[in-house]
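INSTRUCTION: Work out how this chain folds

Fields: amino acid sequence; protein backbone structure tokens

Chain under study, with its fold:
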Amino acid sequence: MNASPDTDGARDTSPADLVAGTVIRSTGSWCDVRTDEETIPARVRGRFQLGEQGATSPVAVGDRVMVKRNADATGVITQIHERKNQLGRRAAGRRVGREHILVANIDCVWIVQSIRLPHPNPGFVDRVLVPAEANEIPAGIVLNKSDLIQEKHAGIIAELRNNYARIGYPILTVSAKTGEGMEALREHLVEKTSVFTGPSGVGKSSLINVLEPGLDIKTSHVSAKTQKGRHTTAYATLFSLKSGGYIVDTPGIREFGVLYIDPWELSHYFIEIKPYLKACRFPTCTHDHEPDCAVKQGVTEGGISEQRYRSYLNILDAIRLGDKDVGR
């Protein structure tokens, strides 16, 4: 991914004026770029070529970039290197229909949920797993707040494990408060660039504070009235871990709209559905109304969980309608 000539003088930049780095924080027009020696606040300037699909910002956390130094210790991003992958969602608000890229060049995405305050949301989990599968990014689930588990939650945990662990997605039960499971989580992050994503209040920042003491990332409590978290992380930020690797903390997300996937191909990103696809009568079967559908038969026989199939249908409706709120 290359930048076009910069209209503010970057086209005359010599190689000696440029330094390579990684974007560790992006606020839109300004980024913090970490080089081998320092962190440079850099402006995003020029018309970067992003292909035919628009995005809310041309630069994302995790991007490898080239920066032209300025005399005032700031810089200008003149080039974005090609990404190996990216994780994005449908942009909210007035930018619906465009992609908001959360992070680029990652090795794993961990979908953080909590046992309660707020309760797990399998629909949200499935909406993150779809773009992860589409971009061939390994994914797992972190179930935080194990210190709040009561006997009545046993069924919820069992269902999560039955729906996800049995089809290959690791589920780690942890507590940022007591430290339970944190060492196992830390081992999964070593020598990788990973991202935590999930709704506000599930404890993403709290987990990172435990994983890397001294960061002191701001956190807040879940509202007792709404049972929802308050936004405390404003922008995605990449942190290095002394144990090796990097972790990206992302703002809380209430919805995760799927973008750039056609109805007929959605089933290819549900890994337990894929084995059934060739047995359907129609090669472009969408598995909701067509006759002789092997996927619907798989649900009836128990090979595909009813919860995951319902999530599939909700996402399918959202794609067809172009409505980010369908099936939330």
